[in-house]
Design brief:
Shape: globular
Mean pLDDT: 75
Number of helices: 8
Order of helices and strands: EHEHEHEHEHEHEHH
Strand content: 15-25%
Length: about 170
């Protein structure tokens, strides 16, 4: 079982998906699986993602159902306990997952961590400058706000599957 499942929902981002996939596969943490959920793309993005040719990558195709359904499909296919999300037009800097896993070690009660950039995550290690929410349902609004602003999310799979209105969290 991989340590982290990374989910990229994909819809018509052929120009950006190769960079996103490469940024995940080039992380220093190698014990990952990358799940790209092609949500009915018509621009060949799914085929571009497949070309990465890495055993850790799976491309799952589905009829267009929206980004939330694509993320949920990725969660249902994830084999790791830890799930991270990346948008198809974004990329992680090298060392991003190392930083996130270090935060998880330092804050074992956190069920959800999110940040807009690696700099923000690195700042959290030194200055606690990132919001770290426990799995309590009372933090759902914090998570919803962060994800709606485009922050990268790192979620424990049980949280993503059990929080009421999880669909809202994953939009």
């Amino acid at each position: 079982m991989p340590l982290v499942s990374v989910i990229i929902p994909l819809y018509n981002k052929a120009a950006e998906i190769e960079r996103s996939v490469r940024s995940v596969l080039e992380q220093t943490v190698e014990d990952i699986e990358l799940i790209v959920v092609d949500d009915g793309s018509t621009d060949g993005g799914g085929e571009i993602a497949t070309r990465a040719g890495d055993a850790r990558l799976r491309v799952i195709r589905q009829d267009n159902a929206g980004v939330s359904a694509a993320r949920n499909k990725g969660i249902s296919e994830a084999r790791a306990k830890l799930v991270a999300f990346l948008d198809a037009d974004d990329a992680w800097k090298p060392g991003f997952l190392d930083t996130v896993l270090d935060l998880r070690e330092r804050h074992p009660d956190a069920g959800l961590q999110f940040f807009a950039s690696l700099e923000e995550a690195a700042g959290a290690i030194e200055f606690d400058g990132v919001v770290i929410a426990t799995p309590a349902v009372t933090h759902a609004e914090i998570a919803l706000d962060a994800l709606s602003r485009g922050y990268h999310a790192y979620v424990e799979k049980p949280l993503a599957l059990t929080v009421p209105d999880a669909q809202k969290l994953l939009k």
